[in-house]
Every structure is written in structure tokens, then in C-alpha cells.
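Good day; I would like, with your permission, to put a structural problem before you. A protein sequence and the C-alpha cells that stand for its backbone fold form the material at issue. The record follows directly beneath this note:
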Amino acid sequence: MTAQEYVVLLHGEETSWREADEAARVEAYAEHGEFSRLCAERGHEIVGGAELRLSDTSIVVRRRDGDVQVTEGPFTETVEQLGGFYQVRTSDVADLARLCGILVGSGAAEIRPVVPEEEQPESVRAEQTAVAP
């Protein structure tokens, strides 16, 4: 089976993280360490990812009636917010999904395929190459 890249989006309730004590944070980071270790052990290659600041630090850009609007704060008024992500290259997304169970706690993980560069229009690929550092 051919490997494909996926983004694992980690959604969770922010209040518990904001109020978490040191021990709870250490435990959460240990779960991410175990996830990373098991990914490597099982042939899933983590190629990127990051923890995100809380949603109240976000900036949202929208286009409304031809005008660009920039606002501060979360995109949606929900309890669960996007808290981080991993970008993973794997040929076994079902196993990757099982491993994500380590990370979800009371939140959720969304696994979404990345559109490969070769499936993007030629004009987009050329533009990305021109902009690349």
C-alpha cells in the first residue's frame, strides 16, 4: 500500500487545559510522547505538527460582500476548539486512527488526507515553487 499524508487535527475543550496543573500537563505531554514513539515503531512518519495557542489568540479572516474582515477570537462559538495537529505519512490510516485514541481524552481527533502536490493544478505547483524559500 502506498503511503499518503494525513493531518490529525486535535479538538478539545480549552478550559480544562487553561486550568490544568503541572501534573496534568506533564501527563498530556507524555501521552503525545507515547503517540510519537508508537507511530515511529509502527511505520507512521510524523512529518510535521504543533501545539496551538488557545483559540482566544486567533485571528479570523473572512470575505463578506467583497470586503475582507479581520476579527480576533475563535472561528466558532463551540466548546471544542482546534488545539494542535500532526502531519503524518502512513500507508495504514486505520492503525493511525487507533493510535489517535491515546490523544483524544474527552476531545476528538479528525484525520484528513492531504491533497498531494501532483493532484494540484500545474499553475498552483509552479506558483508554490516560485514562493518557496
User: Anything to note?
Assistant: The first strand starts at residue 4 and ends at 13. The CA atoms of residues 55 and 80 lie 10 Å apart. The two ends are 32 Å apart (CA to CA). The helical segments are 14-18, 22-41, 93-100, 122-131.
